[in-house]
Amino acid sequence: MPRAVVITGPSGVGKGTLIRSLRTRMPELQLSVSATTRRPRTGETQGVDYHFMTPEEFEQHVAAGDFVEHADYAGARYGTLRSELATRSAGGAPVVLEIEVQGARQVRATMPEAVQVFIAPPSLDALRARLVGRGTDAIEQVEARLRTAEQELAAQDEFARVVVNDRLEDAVEELVEIVRDTTATG
Fold first, then answer.
1. Angle 38-18-162 (CA atoms, 0-180°, nearest 5)?
2. Backbone phi, then psi, for 180, in 5-degree steps?
3. What pTM does this model have?
4. How far apart are CA 18 and CA 127, in angstroms?
5. pLDDT of residue 1
6. Cα 165 from Cα 21, distance rounded (Å)
7. What is the tens place of the pLDDT at every residue in 61-82?
8. DSSP the chain
């Protein structure tokens, strides 16, 4: 099994930003590209940002058992393909998965050795401001993401490692320490 680092937390908490900073500091890390049924956002590229699929294609992969984890989130489906993990881990470097809490739970069950880190916002108000500020979702989608975020925040006690993304540089430093400490011996 590949050495995996799961980064999870509510939408808008800054997982992608933290992972980009983490990979700048630790370029050996490989990033797993998730599959999704949501539409690409401006500037996103097929196979780089996500493996964009139709709902029918996604369901075919589910039925075939091709996902390590998959979940419904904010009206779309997301998942990590087994083939993606195999490809990314072929060189022996740890693989980073940016996934939702539902998916992190599935990975915990199928890959208990995976390092799991929950990224939390400093407050729900700060999360709301980030979601609105990024301007990628309609207000109804923002509200749906916030309702889901409240449930996800209640689950953070399930995770041994929690990083509060209040000051970016502090959060990145904490994440680097966690990943170095937990993957150096794997």
1. 100
2. -60, -45
3. 0.85
4. 15
5. 44
6. 13
7. 999 999 999 988 878 999 999 9
8. ---EEEEE--TTSSHHHHHHHHHHH-TT-EEPPPEESSPPPTT--BTTTBEE--HHHHHHHHHHT-EEEEEEETTEEEEEEHHHHHHHHTTS--EEEE--HHHHHHHHHH-TTSEEEEEE-S-HHHHHHHHHHH--S-HHHHHHHHHHHHHHHHTGGG-SEEEE-SSHHHHHHHHHHHHHHHHS--
